[in-house]
Amino acid sequence: MQRGSLLIGWGNPLRQDDGIGWHLAHQLQAEAGHDRQVLAVQQLTPDLAGALAGCRRALFVDAQMAPAGTPAVRMQITPLPAAAGGGRPFSHHQTPQALLQLSAALYGCTPQASQLLLPVTQLGFDAQLSAEAERLLSQAIALARAWLEEGGDA
User: Fold this and answer.
1) Least C-beta-crowded within 10 Å: which of 6, 24, 71, 89?
2) How many angstroms separate the CA atoms of 35 and 37, rounded?
């Protein structure tokens, strides 16, 4: 039986803002339930294909490097194409698209998938998010929480 929603936040929490997706998922894990699963991972790996096959919809959350001085970017959840190309199916450096392809190949199904890319600028060696990323994180959590709530079982 497929669950409702799966949120996968990833990034390296020891590389400052690169870990913003991981931090988001880590903070939302307490809100997971029967129809909601939240995973905080450092990288996308092939074993996640099974979790994708077990849900109706998935949201991938990650950092996206933005050049310093870039004006504020409006955060939005965007759909991922069902059959995106590329990727090495058994690599430790997966993309969301490659994981969706692997889920289809191994399990015969893929969820409706979207992504939330959070613009960041600080990728130093530090376990703390920058002040800008902290502000962005609170907004992103609200957006991700709304996405989780809209996808619950009726």
Assistant:
1) 71
2) 7
Q: Does domain 3-150 have CATH number 3.40.50.1450?
A: yes
Per-residue pLDDT for the chain (154 aa), expressed as one digit of tens each? 467 999 999 999 999 999 999 999 999 998 877 789 999 999 999 999 999 999 999 999 999 988 766 655 567 888 887 655 555 554 446 899 999 999 999 999 889 999 999 999 888 899 999 998 999 999 999 999 999 988 754 3
d(CA 66, CA 121): 6
- Tell me the Cα Rg of the chain: 15
What value, to the nearest 5°, has the Cα angle with vertex 86 and ends 81 and 87? 110
Distance CA 43, CA 53 (A): 18
